[in-house]
Amino acid sequence: MSMNKRVVEILDTTLRDGAQGEGVSFSVNDKLQVLDALVGFGIRYIEAGNPGSNPKDRAFFSQIAERKPEMGHSVLAAFGSTRRKDTKPEDDPGLADLLSAETRTVVVFGKVWDVEVHENLCCSLEENLAMIRESIAYLCARGREVIFDAEHYFEAAQDNPDYTEACLRAACEGGAVVLCLCDTNGAVMPEEVSRRTAAAVQAFPNVKIGIHCHNDSGVAVANSIAAVLAGADHVQGTFNGIGERCGNANLSTIIANLQLKYSITCVPDEYMTKLTPTARWMAEIANITLPNGEPFVGLSAFSHKAGMHVDGVKKNPDTFEHISPEAVGNNRRFLISEMSGRSAIMEMIQRIKPDIEKDAPEVGRVLEKLKEMEHQGYHFEGAEASQELLVCKELGLYKPFFSLEKMRISSEQPQVGEYSAHTYIKILVDGVTEVTAAEGEGPVNAMDRALKKAMEVFYPELIHVRLTDYKVRVLNAEATASQVRTLIESTDGHRVWHTVGVSTDILEASWQALVDSLEYKLMRKELGWEE
Length: 531
Fold this sequence. Notes:
Blueprint: E1 9-12, H1 28-41, E2 45-47, H2 55-67, E3 75-81, H3 93-100, E4 105-111, H4 114-121, H5 125-141, E5 145-151, H6 153-159, H7 161-174, E6 178-183, H8 190-203, E7 208-213, H9 220-229, E8 234-237, H10 251-261, H11 275-286, E9 303-304, H12 307-315, E10 333-334, H13 342-352, H14 361-375, H15 384-394, E11 403-411, E12 421-429, E13 432-440, H16 443-455, E14 466-474, E15 484-491, E16 496-503, H17 506-526
Parallel strand pairs: 1-2, 1-8, 2-3, 3-4, 4-5, 5-6, 6-7, 7-8, 9-10
Antiparallel strand pairs: 11-12, 12-13, 14-15, 15-16
Helix pairs in contact: 1-2, 1-11, 5-7, 6-7, 8-9, 9-10, 13-14, 14-15, 15-17, 16-17
């Protein structure tokens, strides 16, 4: 790394602000896994929670204090507020909780908007200044590095700039090393962020200025980058942009843009190839679906479908890709569809069978088969695993891993107990029969459980495979006889793949996609594709 290269500190608040997102809940064990992932990616500050707000965060910090994990480049931070009004710092329970977390760094938020001081804190403006100054000084005197989060900074600076600046000055007087300007409502536009950040940098040259943006207006990433270009040296956000309401600034996008487009160091250069695996792992732990179109890290970020685009990328990737996918640990994908030409087909076939010629008859057969099935509604661009299975079948590389002898599915309404459906299944593998049954929350879930239970007897590696998403789409409107397409997302904890099924029977379509999901995992091992 060049000695003159600019460095911006990243503070990840996935475990604190991100956990406030709808549908997101981290257990203590989840938090430990997220911590490991962020340390492994080289994030500078990891804001892990508020020890004074809930037992889960207290338990997490307690475990960290006992285990003392290797943090490498990273620093753990606890989050809390300034002291209460009319309370001495040494008597304030919130500050005591921050100290009890035993982190070297603490993030303290305070009110800088006079409206909030009057209406929420119900104290004088002078008392609030004392609360900021004394709280930070108290923590600094006890060996803590303090980052000050100026809540609702931009509204405050608009309404009463003199008082807002006085609040920041009080934080500096207390000993804060970072003044973080928070767009708490996600309402501000990049021009204002740039202007006010530059003003803060000029007004407070001896501390770092930070930025913390929410995405309510859809510009959290743009605002964060604008702040950095205006002089901010500290950026807060969450991986994959999770957070309250519309989420926080997405660090996976911010880091990639700053590091690759502006040559500003956010994490060690050698860690950038971990960006995509880290983002996907974080989504897995948070139990959210990472959008395929997520910049840099999404499944479709470097995917090409149109025949001319595919051919162009093969000749010169710069024509349709803004960076190399490998730079962020992602990979290029050519989607096979009715729009695809032979270039896309060859790219897939040669990955599977490197020595095949472009004009080989198998290539034409694969193309025709794929187009025929897409005409039936398979749409393989969203189901690359089923697509690769089909190609292997046409190339003679596929072998069936089991045969279904019998299956019976039953469902009861109204539901009694935890499960509403039951599946009985009988399969044959190499002349050996396995009969089993499973219950589930609906017939597809029961079918999935029964099939996996039977297959794991012969293929124990399937124990790690699980279904993570299931979608159904009606392809034509013919009342109850409509044809449907099911799309299933599966993972083994390391890879994610998608399979598809099409039928007028939703259970048959689901069965096709479930079978493809397991057979794809087994085929990868059979052909030596597993790492």
